[in-house]
Amino acid sequence: MKVRLYILILLSMLVTSCGEYEKLLKSTDYELKKTKAKEYYNNKQYVKASELLGQVIPRFRATDEAEELNWLNAQSSYGMRQFDMAATYFKSLVEQYPFGKYAEDATFLGAKCDYSISPRAELDQESSKSAIEGFNVFINRFPYSPKVEEAKGYIKELQDRLVEKSYMSAKLYYNMNEYKAAITALSNSLKEYADSKYREEMMFLKLNSLFQYAEKSYAVKQKERYQAALDDYYSFMEEFPESKYSREVKKIYQDTAKYLKIDNLNKQANIQ
Predict the structure, then answer these.
(1) CATH number at residue 246
(2) Contact at 8 Å (CB) between 183 and 217?
(3) Which of 83, 90, 145, 168 would bridge 116 by S-S if both were Cys, CB 3.0 to 4.6 A apart?
(4) DSSP letter (8 states) at residue 145
(5) Cβ distance 236 to 229 under 8 Å?
(6) pLDDT by residue (tens digit) across 101-156?
(7) Residue 215 is part of which domain span?
(8) According to the 3-state scheme, what is the secondary structure of 88-109?
């Protein structure tokens, strides 16, 4: 009986509370709305705070309180994990108040929102690039912030994700036997991410792509394409003389040398 009574009282309070909030939404008392929005925010009731702030902000746009209200609105979206919307609000706040009291935190959180929506490596990485740019802006603008090391950590994580995305995309062309596209993709990835942990593998894939592309070309094009493979072979061997791909690389060289009629002495000198 006591439990049933408690539930009835709780439901009654809930209905009353909802009714009061609905009245507040329809009210024209914007000072009250502003006060209640802050209360809801402080109580982590971000949905209600956000709805009220959406009504209040236009009324206080040209006042001294506008910066704080926009900050609370951005934080409310962040608290609801609506990172797309929050990122827009944080970035807008920085644009409007570049030297305001929330500029440092808003710059960091705008980038962190992009980080939070950055997907796994095989998907589109535009948000990762945006987050890296945002964190770099933050570090350059606020080099003495206590959050600088955290920002650097996020940048490293995101860069690794971009490297993996680039590697996976290039390797996909290779696995599909699309060697011309693979050569371009691998070359671009190696240039953009010179220190990639996949560098040795990608250089081998590029070399083999050049070789396979030459083999499958029309006769009139083969000589120049085998020569390109040979040039890439020398670059590979210079960088990775003890490569785990040595056996495959040696075979590529032998077949390329045979086509180009490289003399045996020169041939032996380059495969030892």
Answers:
(1) 1.25.40.10
(2) no
(3) 83
(4) -
(5) no
(6) 999 999 999 999 999 998 776 677 889 999 999 999 999 999 999 999 999 999 99
(7) 176-272
(8) HHHHHHHHHCCCCCCHHHHHHH
